[in-house]
Task: structure prediction
Amino acid sequence: MSETRPLLEVKDLVKHYAVRGGVLRRQVGTVHAVDGVSFSLGVGETLGLVGESGCGKSTVARAVLRLVEPTSGSIKLDGTDIVPLSKSDLRPVRRSMQIVFQDPFASLNPRMTAGDIVGEPLTVHGLASGEEKQARVAELFHQVGLRPDQMKNYPHQFSGGQRQRICIARALALGPSLIVCDEPVSALDVSIQAQVINLLIDLQRDHGFSYLFIAHDLAVVAHISHRVAVMYLGRIVEIADKAELFANPRHPYTQALLASVPVADPKMKKLKPMVDGDVPSPINPPSGCAFHTRCRYVIDRCRLERPALAEAGTSHQVACWLNDGTGRPE
Ligand code: SF4
Result:
């Protein structure tokens, strides 16, 4: 749980997709993209959400913003459940929630100038026009490290890192309280990634908004997150304060992810890789603990019963039968 006032509270979030086949397009299966995810995010806090490709983390990101409709569950923003809201009731709430996507080039209209892109939300929501809008856009450019004279340029005239700065400026335009960052640096060169991450940290310090930060790379979330949640096949399997998670990973899957992170500190113990194969299909997820097909600690109970997230220390929860207070995998 976050110790700051909760801004976002997600409870039992489920997103299933029907798989259709045959001439009559009957439902022949169900993709369990997100299968009962709960977490909270405090004001001014960053929660990193990590996991392999296909684990459901981007679906969580989109469901939180209602860019995809949840199958069930609640999503409270500042105490208001936004799941039952109609499109018109959702519209003012959307001002508080923005997203930065992975591929800045794909998410920018190539026919619009950077200034028009950043100013568009102000126009759509009727917040500014004319010179007032231009001044606000110039200020946003300055905040993200771009020059106001670049407002007249088109997306193709910017580098990848600069394009992501344009996306961040657009996300800032409406003064959001929550920004969902969906793999925002994955498409950038490693040398640029740190610059964009540092920009996000500086902006949070100045403006106090919260980030839900999605990544497949623990090294990236390590730098920006206050807490980290690890997802596997549509569920959170471990969630803890960042320092605690990195120092004391309890779930075998988290240990495996950490083992794949390059270690710069020679004194730090390097964990042995302990997971093989690919993530099973979310159409037919394994019974019991979904990780049991890849876990080297598997016991009979793991194949039959699904472990729920349970306390595993201060600000630390884990879903594993070996962490029920009787011990932990070594
Ligand atoms: Fe491994 Fe069993 Fe723990 Fe799942 S519950 S992570 S299979 S030990």
About this structure: Residues 49 and 311 are 19 Å apart (CA to CA). Residues 190-207 form the longest helix (18 residues). The chain has two domains: 6-225, 252-330.
